[in-house]
Amino acid sequence: MEVFALGDTHIVNRAADILRSGGVILYPTDTLYGLGADALSDTAVKKVRQIKGRDEGKPIHAIVADLAMAVEYAEVNDVARKLATKFLPGPLTLILKKKAGIKTGIAKGINTFGIRIPDNRFCLDLAQEFRKPFTTTSANLAGTKPERSVEKILTQLGERAELIDLVIDAGDPPAGGGERLPSTVVDVSEGELKILREGTIVQGVLVRAF
């Protein structure tokens, strides 16, 4: 396991190399730390699930650089575009209908493709360098509260942490400002707003966007 402090001049290139090789990274977002792997690789996504102890049936979402990248993998409808214009980059996950032919990794066995465009320079730079979506799922054991420091995360994961190839340490918490909620998750795959998880962006703010 390699460990780098956020801000190292080579960290984006190194993280992209790890993703291309099928590896897993522990990285900061605009909310919590996440586990990143090639979102279209069955093997890499399986490794992320092993680290978390996560049920195969529970979806994992992906970070993309922008909507132009998102439309390569999912159908970005008018509702999604309106929300993206208002809240992205930011702590919002959009669940979209996946495009035909997208059948591997996080899209395997489901009809949707969840995307995040975080307000975080490292995440956006990595998405541009990698040129593909990479997974974004909180770095914690399934069913447990996410920790906010690399040290505590690795302790919580125990032996499973050995499956992580690269750690980017951005401090505690990664986004600053004390306690952070996860992203708000909304399903807009059918062209209507359906809130699946209320996080940083509360329901009232979302509704007022329309």
UniProtKB/TrEMBL annotation:
Keywords: ATP-binding, Cytoplasm, Nucleotide-binding, Nucleotidyltransferase, Transferase, tRNA processing
Stretches assigned to the YrdC-like domain: 9-201
UniProt-listed PROSITE patterns: YRDC
GO MF annotation list: ATP binding; double-stranded RNA binding; L-threonylcarbamoyladenylate synthase; tRNA binding
The keyword Cell membrane is assigned to this record: no
The keyword Nucleotide-binding appears for this protein: yes
A Gene Ontology BP annotation from the UniProt entry: tRNA processing
Reaction equation(s) it catalyzes: L-threonine + hydrogencarbonate + ATP = L-threonylcarbamoyladenylate + diphosphate + H2O
EC number: 2.7.7.87
Coiled coil: none
Subcellular location: Cytoplasm
GO cellular component: cytoplasm
Alphabetical list of Gene3D superfamilies matching this protein: DHBP synthase
Domain of life: Bacteria
Family that this chain belongs to: Belongs to the SUA5 family.
PANTHER family in the cross-refs: SUA5, THREONYLCARBAMOYL-AMP SYNTHASE
Name under which the protein is recorded: L-threonylcarbamoyladenylate synthase
